[in-house]
Amino acid sequence: MKKFIKQSVEFLKERGFEAPEIGIILGTGLGQIIENVEVIAEVSYNHIPNFPTATVEFHKGKLIYGILGGKKVILMQGRFHLYEGYTLLDVTFPVRVMYQLGIKKLLVSNASGAINLNYKKGEIMLIDDHINLQGGSPLAFRGVEKMGERFVDMSAPYDSKMNETIESIAKKNNITLHKGVYASVVGPQLETRAEYRYLKIIGADAVGMSTVPEIIVANHLGLPVSAVSVLTDECDPDNLKPVDIPDIIAAAGKAEPNMITLFTELIKSL
What UniProt keywords are attached to this protein's entry (predicted)? Predict the structure, then answer.
């Protein structure tokens, strides 16, 4: 794997991806932040050696390098999921590449469903902890110890300093920001009523199909990470309506300006 990472890194350096400070992974329907970036270079995933390709129609599939909030950033416009047929190593490969390019912090966003019914559609949740229900680990491969500690401590997977800053930015800008536990499932099917009840019992406040693998790898690399969920639907098992994907994308778009404020102001402060 080290060889593959090195090839990707060299390719990107040749295309001007020089000394980035912060990596950003954009979730479903959360691409507008690009408009705030002074773009220096961009490359489609399918041109980068060893990179997976985004197959979800509302995920763009580009790596963008530029200036945001006065800092050099790399943005993943479109991420990879287990439900696309990728492995956990594929899903987290870009995090390892961004780390080797030089990022010192990682910010992650996703669209998720609110299990906690005090949280409403269009609001944002800062992830304080997570539950991995994806049935595997991106660290469960032979030779992992050559790339970092095999038995990674996950007692505090999200960076408390960055999280505190995000909370104070939300307060200052009158943004409703919840704090809670994110459960990551495989998907792509949405949950049944019984599954939503189960998720609530085990302590999840929101559920989605991404993020946790990237967080695990960030911790493996010793990379401080923060993540926010844009809540795109309310998962009430007693009043469950059929899923409407365009409605989920629209809800993500509505909440996105607040997420952009949180990320941009955080980046300025780092």
Answer: Glycosyltransferase, Transferase
